[in-house]
Amino acid sequence: MKIYGKEIKDYVNDLINEIRKVVDDKVVVAAISGGVDSAVASYLCWLAIGSNLKPVIIDTGFMREGEIDDTVKRFEEIGMHVEVIDASSLFYEALKNKKDAEEKRKIFREKFYEVLSEAVKNYNASYLVQGTIAPDWIETKGGIKTQHNVLVQIGIDPEKKFGFNLIEPIANLYKDQVRKVAEYIGIPKEIINRQPFPGPGLLIRCVGEFELEKLKALKNVTFLCEKYLQSINASQAFLAIFKKPRMATSNKIVEFLKETKRIIGIGGRGFKTYEFYELATGVKGDARAYGKLLGLYYKEYDAFLKHKDEIIQEFSRILPDYTRLLIMISDPRPAGKYAIALRAVVTKDFMTASVPDLDMELAQKIVDEILKDIRITHVYYDITPKPPATIEYE
After folding, report:
1. Of 146, 233, 267, 371, which sits most exposed with the smallest number of CB within 10 A?
2. What gap in Å lies between CA 112 and CA 120, rounded to an integer?
3. 3-state secondary structure of 281
4. Rounded to an integer, what distance in angstroms lies between the CA atom of residue 86 and that of residue 58?
5. Which residues make Cβ contacts (< 8 Å) with residue 306, sequence separation at least 6?
6. Cα–Cα distance between 265 and 267 in angstroms, integer?
7. pLDDT in tens, 221-275
8. Which among 144, 139, 135 has a CA at the least distance from the CA of 283?
9. Distance between CA 169 and CA 89 in Å, rounded?
10. Among the CATH numbers 3.30.1490.20, 3.40.190.10, 3.30.1360.110, 3.40.50.620, which is that of 2-197?
């Protein structure tokens, strides 16, 4: 495989030599997340400068159950000792009751780099290496959503603001290219094949107002469903949590339902429509758009899923103020205060994405696990591709 016209061997050697040239004999802190991007960036730096690299992982409180320990173990296996910095209380306090998606991302970014700045000082380091890749800065510069690890590309001077210079060796690569580099340099397959997990973690899957109870519920159902999420035939599959939506209708929703029934070839009653309290990030043209979410219930929900692509076309045409359509895959129950959305996508470069078919038996297993948590009242499957939606909700 060639990367930007170079054989992968030459491309990697050039990266390593460039890191050596820039760093010289100085100390570098590596920001580890557990994902393939930060693993590749850090390991390239380790190959270049050895023990002068000091890897750290910040426990923000938004990682999945057991993820910190698993990440430390995997890096130990390839010879890199990772220091864990527990900053969860700092993040929780700063984000409590915050609602706006961009505000949450920016607060997370500030706290994230404040903690890393302290780590750089403690190690008497000059540089921070991180796994920024092309979609991160493209989406941030394009105004679609702020990625927490994008600084210099949007005019933030990390040396002036945080006291370090950045090394971003894979900032021009896309996810498929990063994985090829990872394979070449010997990153463990468990890291290479790990589904992408956003830097702000479960924070941006607690859609809307951040509450600690909301996070705990999401952590619990994610833990319960992890093995089933991994078995979905998707590039990425995860759960997000919302406030229990309200029943709602309008002339446009009625028009959309009429078209949906025509597509599916059914009539009659039994349909319910729900509007979520939160807004979700979408894409219109090349810009970010916040839009409403519509939930649709019909007992034979597999009829919707079989025709999801055609239904989404009508949904976007008739209801342009909405960025997401979610199909309820559980029976609604009165108890509980939260709703869970299952999001699965198939993508090569994470710039566009389609929604895979969902096996009915697997869907039922996921629903059964989620509803073990009495805080959950609805479970949905998000059938919206990218665009008009983004992959994450915030």
Report:
1. 267
2. 12
3. strand
4. 6
5. 264
6. 7
7. 999 999 999 999 999 999 999 999 999 999 999 999 999 999 999 887 889 999 9
8. 144
9. 31
10. 3.40.50.620
**Separation between Cα atoms, residue 233 and residue 371, nearest integer Å:** 23
Q: For the chain, give every domain's residue range.
A: 2-197, 206-382
Count CB-CB contacts under 10 A for residue 79: 9
How far is 267 from 245, CA to CA, in rounded Å? 25
pLDDT digits (tens, 9 = 90+) for 51-97: 999 999 999 999 999 999 999 999 998 889 999 999 999 999 999 99
Sign of CA dihedral 61, 64, 65, 70: negative
Q: Which CATH class is domain 206-382?
A: alpha beta
Structure tokens at 54: 């000091």
Residue whose structure tokens are 């209708």? 249
Q: Token digits for 300?
A: 């034979």
Q: Are 201 and 32 in contact (CB under 8 A)?
A: no
Which amino acid does the sequence have at 344? Answer: A
Element (H, E) at 242: strand 236-243
